[in-house]
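hey
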């Protein structure tokens, strides 16, 4: 089964390496998936680390935004393995794929395509991503409408009533 990974992890250089989850929430990428997806994003076009983070967030419909602590060690590992090149671009580093990285992607094309398709399904609310995406959207709506400047007491009370009603309706499903 395909799992995404979220949070801190350890990277090892062998092909089948393991990562451990950290404190930011449920696992979003397993060790293999992160490597394949990030390498594919760089193969699509050279990117800065921040752009990779933002692209992963976009691809998952906002349900996952990897931390720099998840991305930059992976990028360093890919460079150490000779799969990506790092070029200074002002104060940033631009990552581009090398022939060895393209060969790795080609040799693992079925796996890469499956991971990329899974990202698309997650963003579209398919294959189990629907509840996570909806909960994320709900949280964003509650925080942006319930805490912003100019938010009235009546708006906060309306949000509370909506959340209580939703909770009651969900709990009725178990009866």
């Amino acid at each position: 089964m395909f799992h995404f990974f979220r949070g801190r992890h350890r990277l090892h250089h062998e092909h089948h390496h393991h990562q451990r989850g950290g404190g930011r929430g449920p696992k979003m990428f397993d060790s293999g998936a992160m490597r394949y997806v990030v390498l594919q994003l760089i193969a699509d076009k050279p990117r800065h680390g921040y752009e990779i983070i933002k692209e992963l967030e976009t691809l998952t419909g906002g349900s996952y935004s990897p931390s720099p602590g998840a991305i930059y060690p992976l990028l360093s590992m890919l460079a150490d393995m000779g799969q990506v090149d790092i070029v200074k671009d002002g104060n940033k580093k631009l990552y581009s794929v090398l022939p060895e990285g393209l060969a790795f992607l080609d040799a693992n094309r079925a796996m890469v395509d499956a991971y990329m398709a899974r990202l698309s399904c997650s963003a579209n609310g398919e294959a189990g991503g629907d509840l996570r995406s909806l909960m994320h959207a709900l949280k964003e709506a509650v925080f942006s409408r319930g805490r912003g400047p100019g938010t009235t007491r009546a708006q906060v009370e309306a949000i509370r009533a909506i959340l209580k009603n939703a909770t009651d309706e969900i709990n009725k499903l178990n009866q």
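The beta strands are 47-48, 84-89, 92-97. Confidence is low (pLDDT under 50) at residues 1-26.
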